[in-house]
Design goal:
heterodimer, A: alpha/beta, Rossmann fold, 8-stranded mixed sheet, 32% helix, disordered N terminus, B: alpha+beta, hypothetical protein PF0899 fold, 3-stranded antiparallel sheet, 2 helices
Chain lengths: 262, 113
């Protein structure tokens, strides 16, 4: 087990690659054995009082400091598989590449497919393959960012592993978590998976071009999501047709200019 | 299955602490888990057992202390108990509720030899 990245699997199973790279095995580190002197003979209780995810949270803060120092505005996109995260990224990058420098970290269990799609937009991209892992963590981002070398004053888009449960727990150092729900998933998703909606700042409702064909009540979905997290802001859009993207771009531009002003 | 990552983090923290105390074995660990932390306790117990294998925490007993959820209504300012994310304020039925307790995941203590 790897106690450096805390990913719950052998250390060699997470790979971080740019499209075209040959397979690189992840970091190697010696695990200290547990042999040591035993002076104590009696059972005793030791207070620890430490957050279980303290290591991840510390690394996330380190990432956050790096992003702030370089003026990199970072978003962590989370959703179920198939909600259209990659299409949303492609569309956003293609439409705004004259306004911003983008770079992307893709997270999937397997394949370079998403990184290859993003690469065709012309922006730097790194793919994290988590093996069997169900989420990205702060250490994976730390390693991926080293490989990516993002420019100062850029936007880093992190596409998390498609999973509406586990990525909620792991701070990556991002400025905002964005939860994406597509209208083919059902309007009661916020009630079924409240943890993810409770930690997000923004909810994007995607694939609105399919609204005439499915029973999805947007107002009900928003109401459910607001019951879980009344701080959420919403964007209704279709990354495929481009409808509703302008409001999302306005939000992005506003946040980036605010970030630059800090 | 984020419970496995959580279990590994727990084992990592407690073995480091126990080594610093020159312990030879970890017998017990007490964990505080908030009811809104999004952790499945049964799954965490199962993963903890697996994560302890071949470490000084092997066969250690994990006790989970539930931390109750607490919400604060932003409309009427009342503080109240909650156990789901879908809890309206019992006083004014508003959903403008901020969670002020219940997301904790903390290692409280260990018992070592």
């Amino acid at each position: 087990m790897c106690d450096t990245c805390g990913c719950g699997q052998p250390e060699t199973s997470v790979t971080i690659r740019k499209p075209g790279d040959t397979e690189e095995h992840s970091h190697k580190h010696a695990h200290a054995d547990h042999q040591h002197h035993h002076d104590q003979q009696h059972s005793r209780k030791i207070a620890i009082e430490e957050d279980v995810l303290s290591k991840n949270n510390l690394l996330a803060e380190r990432n956050r400091g790096y992003f702030e120092g370089k003026g990199i505005f970072t978003l962590n996109l989370v959703s179920s598989p198939g909600s259209g995260k990659t299409t949303l990224l492609e569309k956003t990058i293609n439409d705004l590449h004259d306004d911003f420098n983008f770079c992307v970290i893709e997270g999937d269990q397997q394949t370079m497919r998403d990184a290859e799609k993003i690469q065709s937009t012309g922006v730097p991209v790194v793919q994290i393959n988590t093996g069997t892992g169900c989420h990205l963590d702060a250490n994976m981002i730390h390693r991926a960012v080293k490989k990516l070398s993002p420019q100062n004053n850029s936007i880093l888009l992190i596409e998390n592993v498609g999973n509406l449960v586990c990525p909620a727990m792991f701070d990556l150092g991002e400025h905002h978590k964005i939860v994406i729900i597509s209208i083919t998933e059902g309007d009661d998703k916020p009630h079924k998976y409240p943890t993810m909606f409770s930690v997000a700042d923004v909810c994007i409702i995607n694939k609105t071009d399919l609204l005439p064909y499915v029973d999805f009540d947007i107002n009900k979905c928003k109401e459910y999501a607001l019951q879980v997290n009344h701080h959420l802001s919403f964007f209704e859009l279709s990354a495929k047709t481009g409808s509703g993207m302008d409001q999302w771009y306005d939000w992005l531009k506003d946040k980036v200019s605010h970030q630059m002003a800090l | 299955m984020h419970e496995m990552s959580i279990a590994i983090n727990v084992v990592d923290i407690i073995t480091k602490q126990a080594q610093a105390e020159n312990a030879k074995k970890i017998n017990e660990v007490d964990l505080e888990i908030g009811v809104l932390a999004g952790v499945m306790v049964e799954s965490l117990q199962f993963c903890f057992e697996a994560a302890c294998k071949d470490t000084m925490a092997e066969d250690a007993k994990m006790t989970i202390i539930d931390v109750p959820g607490k919400g604060k209504c932003l409309d009427c300012n009342k503080t109240f108990s909650i156990d789901t994310y879908l809890a309206p304020c019992p006083n004014c039925q508003s959903f403008s509720v901020d969670i002020i307790q219940g997301r904790e995941m903390k290692i409280r203590s260990i018992n070592i030899d």
